[in-house]
């Protein structure tokens, strides 16, 4: 068994394909959608957790890529720039999953990538702008 | 009182390397273990620290004259406007200044990516800053326009002058309303979604000298990673705020105006900040040494988070419209535990002031003193305290057109 969080990026021409149906029906995977940003004829993004047999999971990823989708590990999406973080803690009450956590009695911020669902609320909640995303820099559709 | 120690005596010990220095956090344990009297005999200096957003901050610059000379009337550093209404090439750049092209809250909530605080951080970091200015031209100052760039090391002076820093206590901000609001106290989620505070509590300078018995004009301090001085009391200074039995205020109280040479500061402790939907500001690192001149000061410096209290204020109506009273009074120990109770509801807390930063500043200042490179300055004038009877004013709102209002 394998359990992975991934981000699927849809170029506009495949946005309307029933991808999730195939993941479940053809590859016997359990799909838990964490967040989705899908619009007709536009580039889309889907964050989800997949679980199932390792072989099926690997075949599914291959199939997704064949369909023209970009598969990215969820943990690579949001970056905590520790050098820019002032450890105030303002982000910790905004983060909905406690991926950004305030450690006591150290009184320091820590970021647990595996808990992050890429909601991106922290990007603008951080006054020192220490949270960054790679999304805008990625070579989508190229 | 048995202990009576002068600042001169302390400085002698600093110079010969024998001064005993504790941070305001470390000294709590010492006083608990040995009592105030014994601790006062032992300790010479307690160092404090705070690292929070302080909007009332900025820098005076003298950029030097170009050839021909210019009398600046509009000046921009990386597009951020500086005040030019003083002498020819003198400017004041405020931490909250925004480029004229910033959409501000026209795209609500605005991002406020870059402003005065960020320019100051960039200057201190040694980065080159674009400088554009206009002038009307005079016989003695003929140049009307300039577009150039400079680094901090290339201009004559850069003097940080912050009219209000190091607030002695502050509100805890909550939102009783039904939609998220964007404030200088951060993002406040609806229906008591979170409570944001902004003080280092037991490490904060003015909580450790609540009646300003040692801190005065000329006190030498840690400012922005370098050395600075207390210039005056700060704006909105309110020593008349209600106080607890330990003399600390339970509402925003005293404030300090601070100054120092920007050229010897460190960008780690002067950080431009972007508050969503509010604006830009600057996070300022401040550390003040408190000389343990007697037992009374030692007792003040042993204050703990559980003995310090802040008012919980609604920022959806109460604060902006000056309505109602604080909802609760909570201790800094409760605030730092991660949640407080407001109107019977458990509300998660977050700080805007970095306690880890405050601790690091107090520790660094302690190191400076122990190494002998930082001695204490004797204040030349005390700052107004309770006996000054200061009352905060509200702005008169009269109609200049109405005879009746003006009488």
Report what the structure shows.
The complex is a heterodimer of chains A (142) and B (407). Chain A is of the alpha+beta class. Chain A has two domains: 2-75, Alpha-Beta Plaits (2-Layer Sandwich), CATH 3.30.70.260; 78-137, Alpha-Beta Plaits (2-Layer Sandwich), CATH 3.30.70.20. Chain A contains three helices and eight strands; from the N terminus they run βαββαββββαβ. Chain A has helices at 19-25, 54-66, 121-125, and strands spanning 2-10, 30-37, 44-52, 70-73, 78-80, 100-103, 108-111, 131-133. In chain A, the strands form three sheets. In chain A, strands 2-3-1-4 form a four-stranded antiparallel beta sheet, covered by helices on one side. Chain B has a domain at 63-155. Chain B has helices at 7-15, 26-42, 116-124, 295-301, 332-337, 355-370, 403-406; strands spanning 21-23, 45-47, 50-53, 58-62, 74-77, 80-82, 90-94, 129-134, 145-150, 157-165, 172-174, 181-183, 186-188, 195-197, 216-217, 220-223, 226-233, 256-261, 270-275, 279-287, 289-291, 309-314, 328-331, 339-342, 345-351, 381-382. In chain B, β1 (21-23), α2 and β2 form a beta-alpha-beta unit. In chain B, 17% of the residues lie in helices and 30% in strands. The longest helix of chain B is centred in the N-terminal third of the chain and has 17 residues, at 26-42. Chain B is an alpha+beta fold and 407 residues long. The chains are: A alpha+beta (142), B alpha+beta (407).
Summarize the structure.
The complex is a heterodimer of chains A (142) and B (407). Chain A is an alpha+beta fold. Chain A folds into 2 domains: 2-75, 2-Layer Sandwich (Alpha-Beta Plaits); 78-137, Alpha-Beta Plaits, CATH 3.30.70.
């Amino acid at each position: 068994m394998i359990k992975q969080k991934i981000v699927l990026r849809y170029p506009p021409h495949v946005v309307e394909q029933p991808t999730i149906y195939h993941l479940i029906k053809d590859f016997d995977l359990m799909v838990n959608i964490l967040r989705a940003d899908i619009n007709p004829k536009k580039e889309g993004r889907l964050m989800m957790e997949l679980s199932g047999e390792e072989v099926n999971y690997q075949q599914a990823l291959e199939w997704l890529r064949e369909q023209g989708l970009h598969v990215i590990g969820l943990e690579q999406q949001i970056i905590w720039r520790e050098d820019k973080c002032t450890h105030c803690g303002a982000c910790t009450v905004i983060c909905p999953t406690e991926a950004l956590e305030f450690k006591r009695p150290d009184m320091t911020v820590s970021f647990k990538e595996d808990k992050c669902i890429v909601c991106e609320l922290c990007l603008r909640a951080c006054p020192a702008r220490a949270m960054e995303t790679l999304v805008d820099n990625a070579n989508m559709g190229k | 009182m048995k202990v009576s120690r002068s600042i001169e005596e302390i400085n002698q010990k600093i110079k010969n390397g024998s001064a005993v220095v504790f941070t305001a956090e470390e000294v709590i344990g010492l006083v608990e273990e040995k009592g105030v009297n014994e601790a006062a005999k032992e300790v010479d200096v307690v160092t404090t620290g705070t690292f929070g957003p302080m909007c009332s901050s900025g820098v005076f610059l003298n950029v030097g004259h170009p050839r021909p000379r210019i009398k600046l009337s509009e000046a921009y550093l990386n597009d951020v406007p500086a005040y030019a209404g003083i002498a020819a090439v003198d400017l004041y750049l405020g931490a909250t200044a925004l480029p004229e092209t910033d959409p501000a809250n026209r795209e609500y909530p605005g991002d406020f990516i870059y402003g005065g605080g960020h320019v100051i951080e960039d200057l201190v970091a040694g980065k080159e800053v674009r400088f554009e200015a206009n002038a009307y031209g005079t016989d003695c100052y003929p140049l009307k326009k300039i577009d150039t760039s400079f680094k901090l090391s290339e201009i004559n002076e850069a003097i940080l002058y912050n009219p209000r820093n190091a607030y002695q206590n502050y509100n805890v901000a909550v939102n009783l309303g039904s939609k998220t609001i964007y404030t200088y106290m951060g993002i406040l989620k609806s229906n008591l979604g979170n409570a944001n505070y902004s003080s280092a509590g037991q490490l904060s300078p003015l909580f450790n000298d609540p009646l300003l018995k040692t801190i005065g004009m000329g006190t030498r301090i840690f400012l922005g990673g370098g050395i600075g001085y207390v210039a005056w009391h700060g704006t909105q200074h309110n020593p008349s705020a209600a106080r607890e039995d330990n003399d600390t205020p339970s509402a925003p109280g005293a404030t300090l105006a601070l100054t120092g040479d920007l050229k010897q500061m460190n960008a780690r402790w002067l950080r431009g900040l972007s508050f969503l939907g509010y604006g830009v500001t600057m996070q300022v690192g401040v550390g003040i040494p408190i000389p343990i001149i007697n037992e009374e000061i030692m007792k003040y410096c042993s204050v703990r988070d559980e003995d310090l209290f802040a008012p919980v204020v609604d920022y959806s109506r109460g604060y902006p419209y000056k309505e109602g009273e604080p909802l609760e009074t909570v201790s800094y120990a409760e605030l730092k535990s991660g949640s407080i109770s407001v109107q019977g509801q458990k509300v998660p807390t977050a700080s805007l002031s970095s306690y880890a930063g405050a601790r690091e500043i107090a520790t660094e200042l302690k190191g400076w003193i122990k190494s002998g490179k930082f001695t204490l300055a004797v204040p030349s004038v005390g700052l107004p305290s309770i006996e000054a009877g200061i009352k905060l004013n509200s702005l008169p709102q009269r109609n200049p057109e109405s005879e009746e209002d003006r009488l």
